[in-house]
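Anyone? Bumping this.
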Amino acid sequence: MDKKAFPYAFWTKILGALVVVAGVISFFLQYQRKGIFDFNELAIGFSWGLLFIFFSKERTEDEMMQVLKFRSLARAIVISFFATHLYNYLFLNWRLQRPDGIILSISAYQFLAITLIIATGTFYFLKYRAIAEEDQ
Amino acid sequence: MKNSIKLERVRNNLTQAELADQVKVARQTIIAIEANKFVPSTILAFKIAKALSCKADDIFQLEETDWE
């Protein structure tokens, strides 16, 4: 078992959560000031925050946590890449009509944010399912 | 791969938390291994066997599906 698989200490999850909250606040402040939904700004907050949350060690870091994280990340990359490519393809190649304010294509920050949201959600779901077995 | 960790653990009068503590993994990991949801590495399998005072062969058995 590689004990250094995840570089950040457990407490960096709190830092990550704070960065996500700061990103959300900044997103709404931008809307109040400029009247536009800056999804790139929101994605920057989410991607930095979730980077710390997902890639930090769990309270008890062991091989199952590492396997679950790998599985979650593998699924998340495939799903988000498919979704991103489909969105970009539809709006850039087919030039579909889109309501005002909806972004034309998904940026790298947004792709990373989507990937990490799916990966983090999947990881906690798989972890919860392992505990749920016991309750049954 | 199936295992008889739960049986051996009860025989050794250990809780899941105590076994997890001895082999330095999370309690969830022991739960998942007992429920055959997670196959441990060789090192962890040997650690569990040692904590339960038996051989790895005695608690872990290959199934037909493992050969597919």
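Late reply, but here is one note on the structure posted above: The first helix of chain B runs from residue 5 to 11.
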